[in-house]
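Intended use. Records like the one below are meant for learning the mapping from a protein sequence to its folded structure. Do not use them to infer anything beyond what is encoded.
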Amino acid sequence: MRRLALVLICSLAALASFGADSTSVAQRIELSFRGAYVLPTNQIVKGDNRFGSKTRSAFGGAVEYSFSFAPASYFGRYYPYAYQGVGVGVTAFDESKVTGTPVNIYVLQGSRIASFSSRLSLDYEWNFGISAGWHKNSDTSLLDYEHIDGFGSNINAYIDLGFKLRYALSNRISLTAGVNFSHFSNGNTDYPNPGVNVLWGRLGLAWNLGSVPTQRRHDWSGYDPHFTYDITAYGAWRKNLFDSNYGMADSDSEMRIIPGHFAVAGLNVNPLWHFNPMFSAGASLDFQYDEGANLSPYYVTSTPSDDPKFYRQPFSHRVMAGLSARAELQMPIFSVNIGIGHSLYAPGGGDLRGWYQMFTLKTFVTRNLYLSTGYRLVRFRTPGNLMLGLGWRFGS
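Structure written out for the chain above:
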């Protein structure tokens, strides 16, 4: 998680750089208060833990700073209602002895979806960052949830998507109300990694600090649809499991945690057709190397399952190549890229064969260079790995 924190710091630096170099039309401070239902999507929050405690609800608050760009600027012309910034929040779960009381530090971006009147509008907003202060499980070798007393990491990734109504009480003050969905996960870097999903209701109050934006429309005149070509290299580390009964006749699978961490590296080559300044789509040729993939057949059965040894699996059992369909939302500084793909080459099968999904946030440090922070899911439900890297956009 330290590498994820470093990426967040770089993203904050990029925000500060753009904010310093551009005249902002609006600066805003927003305070929000939230109440939540914790979705029962994993065994720990359902009560399968050492305390037997179910985690059902949470309360929280956040303070956010954001800014938007001047109408005459490049970003202001194409994205007149986009805002971006930083936030700090806290999440207090009803069973904090299991979860802890994490503090969330994040970058954010949002924009207007619809205007119902001169005072009332509907916005969206996403947050991405780190969440620190989770209770860490005292025995990370356990897969038995009934004996777990925390999570795999003190620090998790934090992802949030929300929709909110904004009502302007005056030129300076607005009320906000909406719903948010949050996901907390350590990206499979440690076990247990059940992922915590939270559905929030929120109320907020926002103050405009600078000049107040007037109602206006985007100006996309003169924009030519075109191709760009993104090449992204990434790396990460992950935990993995193996089946200690693999290959044994009439035996059920017995999944065990493999001590230590395994390296992951990958490359994406992603042409994108830009339909307009906000939306692009294309396909990506994806390559990944996973040091810990498909180890079950190579388990040395004479070694204990809690301290296992493995023969080195063939290189071909550690690599895959796949093709994915991609869609990207482009906004100032940030782009959100979502992909669904399937392996084309994965001779080792198992962990690397089949469907996979990718969620990636690109933070543009320059017009061409971007930081890439993402997460890979396997077969729509199985945690895969983080993707932390750098990319270059050709033809921007």
